[in-house]
Design a protein that fits this description.
It holds the Pfam family Terminase_4. The chain is mainly alpha-helical. It has helices at about 25-45, 50-75, 90-105, 110-115, and strands at about 75-80, 85. A hairpin with a 2-residue loop joins strand 1 and strand 2. Helix 1 runs antiparallel to helix 2 and helix 2 packs antiparallel against helix 3 (about 90-105).
Length: about 130
């Protein structure tokens, strides 16, 4: 995503309670959920609509870690009849890293996304104007 990113704002559906990682996630994905969920919840930028993005981020990062273990055990290159070939886990890991980075940015987990203006708190009770940016 290029250009100026929109300012993160508190939504009425902000998740304020602790939510456990879905049971279907891998061990690595659950570990990432436990690491980032409290941070995002504390910032009050996570809404129920964003939980899918958080799940996808955690799954992508879990895949990165799983592929790294595979590559450490089996190597980045293997011998084939036609000569050395790149291990398929290299491409899988690269794709997962790209997805994780994009989702981390959307969730405010990167240095650049955190440096954006602070979360706006609309405590006056007024409905947000469609002209507010």
């Amino acid at each position: 995503m290029r250009g100026t990113k929109p300012t993160l704002v508190v939504d009425n559906g902000t998740v304020l309670r602790d939510i456990k990682a879905p049971s279907w996630m891998s061990k690595d994905a659950k570990a990432e959920w436990r690491r980032v969920f409290p941070v995002i919840r504390k910032r009050r930028i996570l809404t129920t609509a964003d939980l899918g993005s958080l799940e996808n981020y955690c799954v992508a990062l879990g895949t990165v870690r799983e592929m790294e273990r595979t590559l450490q055990a089996e190597g980045h290159v293997f011998s084939a009849e036609s000569g050395p070939k790149r291990h398929p886990a290299v491409a899988i890991q690269s794709d997962a890293m790209t997805r994780a980075l994009r989702l981390a940015s959307e969730l405010g987990l990167t240095p650049v996304s955190r440096s954006r203006p602070a979360v706006r708190k609309d405590d006056d009770g007024d409905e947000p104007s469609p002209l507010d940016f």
